[in-house]
Design goal:
Largest sheet: none
Number of helices: 16
Strand content: under 5%
Oligomer: single chain
Mean pLDDT: 85
Distance between the termini: 103 Å
Radius of gyration: 26 Å
Order of helices and strands: HHHHHHHHHHHHHHHH
């Protein structure tokens, strides 16, 4: 009788341990499911915000705009109304409501103000905290371009291209193609004869991929206009095409300093010094800190001159 009682107690103990273990595993699974959902929701939130904002890019913020301050701020930034974007995000009582977008905006504003190292470090922190916040990858590639780290910038942008638009989003995919093309162009420009021969024809396909998906984008128009302006004819250079693309870039986004700077260089290449100066001066009026416009004005020509 005593042995039967001991056996029964042992079975009850095993049953109790099993229930506790089952309960613990269930809680653990619930945590991971909740965590995964929250991460995916967070990624969806920023992509959704950027996508919504893009439908308003190139237009002024009006009374009928969405009430979402994150969308409004991105529209301000896209239209180069930097002070309005800074004011809006700085005034937010809860900056976390926009997720990683808030920190990204301030990093982008640093870059536009010429504080490359400061913006660069902020992008690295963002990517450490949000590894799939691909918008930061693209702007980091742009920052590396202005820091003249072209090879590293190209590799970063090209890695996003290889991920594809399904993983990164169509907008990021387009921007990644633009950055890959721009940085590869600089690698070729500064490289050896062998680099020019082996990579010269690889630039345009990136830009044409971007154009196919977003043909009316001022950034795409600028990228192609710059390619046609400076490339030798053997790989596709064409001054007539450069004129069309650069004028369209300015028309699409009238507050885009870099578009005016490159359009000015088109006139410089054509020998029209008056229009060259007019466009360059206008670029610097829009943004006195423009890295490209100042590079042209001082004749440093790190980013190519005619």
């Amino acid at each position: 009788m005593s042995n039967l009682l001991k056996q029964k107690n042992f079975l009850n103990y095993r049953h109790d341990i099993f229930l506790r273990l089952f309960f613990f595993v269930t809680l653990l699974l619930g945590y991971f499911v909740t965590y995964s959902f929250s991460v995916s929701s967070e990624n969806y939130k920023w992509k959704e915000t950027v996508l919504t904002a893009r439908t308003y890019f190139g237009t002024n913020v009006r009374a009928d705009f969405p009430n979402d301050p994150c969308v409004r701020g991105l529209v301000y930034l896209s239209n180069f109304k930097d002070s309005s974007a800074r004011k809006l995000f700085s005034a937010m009582k809860d900056p976390g409501v926009c997720g990683p977008i808030t920190d990204w905006v301030f990093a982008e504003l640093d870059i536009r103000s010429g504080h490359l190292d400061k913006g660069h470090d902020k992008f690295l922190v963002l990517l450490k905290n949000y590894p799939k916040f691909y918008l930061a990858d693209v702007t980091l590639a742009e920052t590396l371009y202005f820091k003249k780290e072209y090879k590293r910038a190209f590799e970063l942008a090209d890695s996003l291209v290889k991920k594809g638009k399904e993983e990164t989003s169509e907008d990021i995919f387009v921007d990644a193609n633009l950055m890959a093309g721009a940085n590869l162009a600089m690698v070729v420009h500064n490289g050896s004869l062998w680099t020019k021969i082996t990579n010269g024809r690889k630039i345009l396909p990136y830009l044409l991929t971007a154009e196919k998906l977003r043909p009316d984008s001022a950034e795409v128009l600028l990228g192609l206009g710059t390619f046609y302006l400076f490339s030798p004819s053997i790989v596709g250079g064409d001054l007539k095409k450069a004129e069309v693309y650069l004028k369209n870039a300015v028309a699409k986004k009238p507050l885009f300093p870099d578009a005016y700077a490159r359009l000015g260089q088109y006139y410089q290449k054509k020998g029209d010094q008056v229009k060259f100066k007019e466009n360059l001066d206008h670029a610097l009026k829009l943004n006195p800190h423009s890295i490209l416009a100042n590079d042209i004005k001082t004749r440093k020509c790190d980013f190519i001159c005619p």
